[in-house]
Amino acid sequence: MQHNRDADSGQDFDDMLRVCWPHQDCSSCLKQGSCGWCPESSTCVPNTSNIQIFAPVFNNKMCPLSSERWEFRTRPFGCHVSTITVFTCIVSVFATVVMLASLAGLNKLRPKVQAKWNGRPTGCWKVWKYYEPGWWKILIPRLVDINGDDESTRPLLENRV
Questions:
Q1: Engineering a disulfide at 73: which of 6, 37, 52, 95 sits with its beta carbon 3.0 to 4.6 angstroms away?
Q2: 97 or 18, which is more confident?
Q3: Residue 154 included in any domain
Q4: Could you read off the pLDDT of 62-115 as tens digits, one per residue?
């Protein structure tokens, strides 16, 4: 006989099992105080965890099927919210806060970076003058200077007077 104790009610695990096990749907299962619902096996199981939704973290044999461990449903979230849904929500909120803090930090650094950028020598980024394209050179449109003196850029069919 197991002698796990429920912290709130003082019931033995076997007594809790007798209370939870007969329920065959999620809503009636969760109406019981310390029961949780395993949806794939459709079983109502005792839940002795202090934070009920996180029971699968501390007990990997919470549900009869190991594949439904993270699909565990408890109070106060109800039948439509599982443990994995709560974890997803927590991670999403945390990631959003980290991203917003990073953006705020970058925004504070922006004036310093902008001052350094504006203080740079003007000729340091003029590398395109030396850039020689490869086979795609024909794909780059070029403007032709009609009035130019350079023979290579003058149109072939030009009216000469």
A1: 37
A2: 97
A3: no
A4: 888 888 889 999 988 888 899 999 999 999 999 999 999 999 999 998 888 888
Buried b / exposed e over 102-112, threshold 16 CB at 10 Å, is eeeeeeeeeee
Does the pLDDT at position 3 exceed 50? no
Whether 157 maps to a domain, the answer reads no
CB of 107 closer than 8 Å to CB of 99 = no
b/e sequence 122-157, b meaning 16+ C-beta within 10 Å: eeeeeeeeeeeeeeeeeeeeeeeeeeeeeeeeeeee
- β-strand partners of 38: 43
Q: Is 132 a member of any domain? A: no
